[in-house]
């Protein structure tokens, strides 16, 4: 099993837009049920404001590296990534569990 963890934060040069951000977060949360390769999916918003904090975390699990690629290159994921890129920076970690 591969755990895929992604942290998101609004880009420093992008003005905060709660409606846009909320819509993106909802789309992130819904994606887990739309791609068959995903075994576990959770999106959560940060609750404590600290200088090192990111705005959102995505925690997911897939069966294998091949399944991770199936998710990463799925058209629904690619469409979401295109919409996330202008608003968020992100960092990812993938590891075996």
UniProtKB/TrEMBL annotation:
<dbReference type="InterPro" id="IPR013097">
    <property type="entry name" value="Dabb"/>
</dbReference>
<feature type="domain" description="Stress-response A/B barrel">
    <location>
        <begin position="2"/>
        <end position="97"/>
    </location>
</feature>
<protein>
    <submittedName>
        <fullName>Dabb family protein</fullName>
    </submittedName>
</protein>
<dbReference type="InterPro" id="IPR011008">
    <property type="entry name" value="Dimeric_a/b-barrel"/>
</dbReference>
<dbReference type="Pfam" id="PF07876">
    <property type="entry name" value="Dabb"/>
</dbReference>
């Amino acid at each position: 099993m591969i755990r895929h963890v992604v942290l998101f934060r609004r880009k420093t040069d992008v003005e905060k837009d709660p409606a846009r951000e909320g819509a993106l977060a909802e789309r992130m949360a819904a994606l887990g049920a739309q791609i068959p390769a995903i075994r576990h999916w959770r999106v959560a918003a940060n609750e404590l404001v600290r200088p090192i904090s990111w705005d959102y975390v995505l925690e997911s699990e897939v069966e294998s590296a091949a399944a991770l690629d199936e998710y990463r290159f799925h058209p629904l994921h690619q469409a979401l990534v295109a919409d996330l890129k202008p608003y968020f920076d992100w960092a990812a970690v993938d590891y075996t569990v």
